Amino acid sequence: MASRLDDFLAATAPIAAQAEVVPEGLPGQIAAALRDRIQVGEFKPGDPLRAAPLAVAFGCSRGPVREALKRLEREKLVTITPRTGAVVASMDPSALAAHFRMRAEIGALFMRLAAERVQRPPALVAAILEGAEVLADVAADEGAQVADYFRARRRLTELIGTLAAAPYVSELSQALEREVAVLWAPMLSASRRRRSAGGWKKIARAIAAGDADTAETEGRRMVLEALEETQRLSSDL
Amino acid sequence: MAGGTLNSPAANGSLDSIVETVLTAVLAGELVPGQRLPERWLVEACGCTHTGAREAISRLQSLGAVVVPERRGASVISRREAPLDEVDRVWRQLTPLLEAAAGPLPTQLSADGWARLVQEQAALERARPAAGDRLIDTLKRVSLQRAIVAVR
Fold it and tell me: Which of B59, B81, B87, B134 to probe the A interface (max A CBs under 10 A)?
């Protein structure tokens, strides 16, 4: 299973390179690494992120670590207070619904722009369809790592972004996505991943068929479903 | 600049005026989208200190008017980063969410770029209690970026 994902990632790397967000500089790389670790739940909301041990772990001085933490603060993934330093942010439940509804609209627009695109290189469209299949495979694999699911999903998003050629919408969409990283780790159960992958398949087919209405509707629905599930899970706690 | 301000109450008066100087210069076409915005420009145009200029740039960055790439100086957001048609579509995609929560936005806006922007930002600010911080902050950013890249 992992090999199909690896093959897909390797095969699509050149196409995705245009859309791939390459972290700039050492602070950018540290921020990206911390973001990934927050997303898979290694660092949980409320966990302290101290510059000194992180600097040792990354083998650098504290400066770039502090810069990375400031960047994550701007992304609202981390809160920094003078007394306690940086801690992983938690999302205010009242802000949750508003955030997801906005993300649903931006996601819907992102999918629509990809489906509406007139210039559609066949190799790129094929890669998007393959990406949705790979994602479904990873989601169906009980032994697969959550991180593999995120890798597959990130690449699929990059490919759709390459087709959409919409830098502004892509950036906004990614910024909103980064903010909810703290929520995904506890919420992304295997069944949630499977259902979500089903949504991505529909989106990929709609994009390939140039069906902008379906791409938009499915893009919106997927996020709103995630909202419902998130609300249900948090009310169970 | 008595027409109003785009800044939060937290910003101090002098910083406000630097931010306004830059934004009015952009909307008047004196600074174009994508143009470099050196601290020196701010120091000369506003008579502020380099520290004041740095603070203003950071404020403009958080408002979405200016980008500061790694190891490079600040520039006004460009049409490559924020193509007008895309910014417009984001605006049209998100305003229904706002209007559902807070009622319709005013349609009669000034023809003057700066006055129009101030009116639009004020309307968004008024909708904050009903629409929530996150949506309002995003729409204020989109409104500002749209005003900048729409300048001809």
Answer: B134
Backbone Cα Rg of chain A = 18
Q: Which residues of A touch B86 (CB under 8 A)?
A: 113, 166-169
Q: Does A95 touch chain B (CB under 8 A)?
A: yes
Find the CB nearest A167 among B62, B81, B94: B81
Q: What does the radius of gyration of chain B's CA atoms come to, in whole angstroms?
A: 15
Cα separation, B55 vs A66, in Å, equals 19
Above 0.90 for ipTM, yes or no?
no
Nearest CB to B90 within list A27, A95, A168:
A168
* Closest of A35, A60, A27 to residue A184, by C-alpha: A35
Q: Cβ contacts (< 8 Å) between A171 and chain B: which residues?
A: 81
Closest Cβ–Cβ partner in A24, A74, A166 for B86 = A166
Cβ-proximal residues to B4 (8 Å cutoff; 6+ apart), any chain: B118, B121, B122
The reply to whether A166 touches chain B by the CB within 8 Å rule is: yes
Residue B119 one-letter amino acid = Q
Predicted confidence pLDDT, tens digits, chain A (237 residues): 568 999 999 999 988 877 666 677 899 899 999 998 888 788 888 899 999 999 999 999 999 999 999 989 888 889 999 888 999 988 777 788 888 999 999 999 999 999 999 999 999 999 999 999 999 999 998 888 888 998 999 899 999 999 999 999 998 998 888 887 777 665 567 888 888 999 999 999 999 999 999 999 999 999 999 888 888 877 655
Chain B residues near residue A100 by CB distance under 8 angstroms: none
Arithmetic mean of pLDDT over chain B: 87
Q: Which whole-number Å values give the CA distances from B104 to A41, A149, A235, B108, B124, in the listed order? A: 41, 41, 33, 12, 11
Which residues on chain B are in Cβ contact (under 8 Å) with A108? 93
CB contact under 8 A, B97 and A172: no
What's the pTM?
A: 0.86
**Sequence-distant (≥ 6) Cβ neighbours of residue A92 within 8 angstroms:** none
At A166-193, the pLDDT tens digits run: 999 998 998 888 887 777 665 567 888 8
